[in-house]
Specification:
The protein is about 25% helix and about 25% strand. The protein is of the alpha/beta class and about 140 residues long. The protein has a five-stranded parallel β-sheet with strand order 1-2-5-8-11. A four-stranded parallel β-sheet has the order 3-6-9-12. β1, α2 and β2 form a beta-alpha-beta unit. It is globular, with a radius of gyration of 21 Å. About 30% of the residues are buried.
Length: about 140
């Protein structure tokens, strides 16, 4: 085998290795779905713990209950939603209750890929600073 043939063969092998590496990384970065239930029969008991353990593209499904906490997306491009954002009864019974400055914080450049959907927020509302999240089907009351 000539030096040129050797280099061509090696170049082809390098392309295969690079392609395989990209595929492995892409598979390991797939989005996850986590459930949150304040009764403890889910992946997480608090919404903020679920957010802290999520990454871009993940979905957090919040089961009905009252979550007495302030949540902050922390720049993550995730979806935080009730079990059924289209059902008014589910939305009414999936509550973030906070007496902080805001019940939900978007303050790290979150964009339309940061989604809050189908939840009731009481006591403090939503604060967006330098962010443009997607808010859909939420009820904000008693603020």
């Amino acid at each position: 085998m000539s030096a040129l043939e050797y280099l061509k063969a090696g170049g082809c092998m390098n392309k295969r290795i690079a392609t395989l590496t990209v595929l492995v990384l892409a598979l390991s970065c797939s989005a996850d779905v986590f459930t949150v239930d304040d009764d403890g029969v889910a992946d997480f008991q608090t919404i903020q713990d679920a957010i802290d353990n999520s990454w871009h593209g993940d979905t957090l499904i919040i089961m009905p209950g009252t979550y007495e906490e302030q949540i902050a997306f922390g720049g993550r491009q995730i979806t935080v939603r009730s079990e059924d954002p289209e059902d008014p009864n589910v939305v009414a019974n999936t509550v973030i209750a906070s007496d902080s400055d805001a019940g939900v914080l978007f303050e790290f450049g979150e964009n339309e890929d940061s989604v809050l959907m189908g939840l009731t927020i009481t006591g403090a509302g939503i604060l967006c600073t330098g962010a443009s999240p997607t808010l859909f089907g939420n009820v904000i009351r008693d603020c």
